[in-house]
Amino acid sequence: MSNLKQEIEKRRTFAIISHPDAGKTTLTEKFLLYGGAINQAGSVKGKATAKHAVSDWMEIEKQRGISVTSSVLQFNYDGYCINILDTPGHQDFSEDTYRTLMAADSAVMVIDASKGVEAQTRKLFKVCVMRHIPIFTFINKMDRDANDTFELLDDIENELGIATCPINWPIGSGKEFKGVYDLKSKQVMTFSDTRKGTQEGQETLISIDDPALLDEIGEEKRAQLLDEIELLEGAGAEFDQELVTKGELSPVFFGSALTNFGVETFLRHFLQMTYAPLSRTSDKGEINPFSEDFSAFVFKIQANMNKNHRDRIAFMRIVSGEFEAGMEAYHVQGGKNIKLAQPQQMMADERKMVDRACAGDIIGLFDPGIFSIGDTLTTAKEKFCFEGIPTFAPEHFARCSLVDSMKRKQFVKGITQIAQEGAIQIFQEYKGGMEEIIVGVVGVLQFDVLKFRLQSEYNVEIRLENLPYEYIRWIKNPETVDMDRLVGTSDMKKVKDMKDRPLLIFINEWSIGMVLDRNEGLELEEFSRN
Ligand code: G4P
């Protein structure tokens, strides 16, 4: 790249999070339309038409009509190069969803205006908070009857524990939706139906003091707006860029992705309020994105994107420098130099090969089975490792057994590889070996994925017996805790992970407190660093 610094400065890498059906796909699609990356709405992922343009990699996706894996889309807009990390919104989502957030520099949270904060949003939100990344809220579907605006904001503040700061304010909703009022410019942007975004919308800007506003929105709506603005000035948090950057204040926007209203305004503000890729922490200190040396970390491994080959793609986030196809880099965990061949990048509707990429970008590399989640690659002379990616707590457990015990070898190989990719976590009885395996997953769909993949890729049939456990806690201080003497409850089970680390699984939260009470000095944690 001719001017690496400029290229990196152009980058904005964010994840979109939402509860299923809030409108994440529709919003993404509209972003891509602005970027000219697609010509026609409907080509990102049409659920009804089963067009899984980007991640059509497994039968199970087609059968269920959902997207199992997260994908990455890149487009250019107004001088910026934007990477959107999509996260599966289905309730059966997996650890991948969480890990994707580790690769993002900020997050956009899409909320359905008639529903407010929903379960999925809450879960993903916790990870954003853990990372202290900026969170932007887009309250969608204003063209439908919406909840009271103040209530929606209260809901976010109470449910997610983050202060909100509306950047614009809706005028009515549903059939009565008239547009949004921009609090800073003091202008109303009027809404016109774009027939599901197929027509150019006429977004007229009218000053709040302009008498013409009365014709546009009517006396009643105008009076209500003035009342609400007054209330807001007394109660709402003020915009503060520093708090936004720290992830403590979420700028809120209102709009309707389907009718393409408020989307471009949102995008413009978002780009102004976010920064170019930031440095990341390693064991040798912060790694500056503008450093000449290339470095990246693996945050996701996806198997079998091509059904005819049993290949894996390791997705990595470039942290610093520039990537060139065919270059060599040191794989820190593997302890050797490797050639980075076959790079891939996701575009709106295809997978394409990339020659060059830089800090902020996501690339997918062909993986012959050498990478694990969290691995570091770098060309720097002084080697370092990026901070590990946490293992997220599985919430569903099942005992996994073989139907044909002659297939033990393939079974162990298959289940270990799938666990290495991070799609599932495997545990053993505290005193047991590989003969009995307990599988833990973040979303129950992963059980089906496991069964399907063991059968189709390793020719192994398994039986899964659901276990009632829902909570997992790693032992933070294993060196001072004697596992044999640990006093448990009847709702608890001792297990160990593949690194032989002891942990406990519980049926209910109450038991966790009980065990802590009964064992002085015991410390438990929900996430484990790899
Ligand atoms: P998701 O990715 O978050 O799961 O949501 P998606 O964009 O697929 O949207 C879910 C449904 O909500 C879709 O309708 C979509 O058209 C609709 N939708 C999205 N944004 C808006 C909006 O601003 N206003 C209104 N009224 N509807 C919106 P569907 O009938 O489930 O699917 P489709 O057949 O229309 O694709």
UniProtKB/TrEMBL annotation:
Pfam families: EF-G_D2, GTP_EFTU, RF3_C
CC per GO annotation: cytosol
InterPro entries in UniProt: EF-G-like_DII, EFG_III/V, G_TR_CS, P-loop_NTPase, PrfC, RF3_C, RF3_dom_3_sf, RF3_GTP-bd
Mitochondrion as UniProt keyword: no
Gene3D superfamilies: P-loop containing nucleotide triphosphate hydrolases, Peptide chain release factor 3, domain III, Translation factors
Locations listed in the record: Cytoplasm
GO biological process, one term: regulation of translational termination
Alphabetized UniProt keyword annotations: Cytoplasm, GTP-binding, Nucleotide-binding, Protein biosynthesis
Domain Tr-type G: start-end pairs: 9-278
Family: Belongs to the TRAFAC class translation factor GTPase superfamily. Classic translation factor GTPase family. PrfC subfamily.
Annotated function: Increases the formation of ribosomal termination complexes and stimulates activities of RF-1 and RF-2. It binds guanine nucleotides and has strong preference for UGA stop codons. It may interact directly with the ribosome. The stimulation of RF-1 and RF-2 is significantly reduced by GTP and GDP, but not by GMP.
The protein's name: Peptide chain release factor 3
Source organism per UniProt: Agathobacter ruminis
Lineage: Bacteria, Bacillati, Bacillota, Clostridia, Lachnospirales
Gene name of the record: prfC
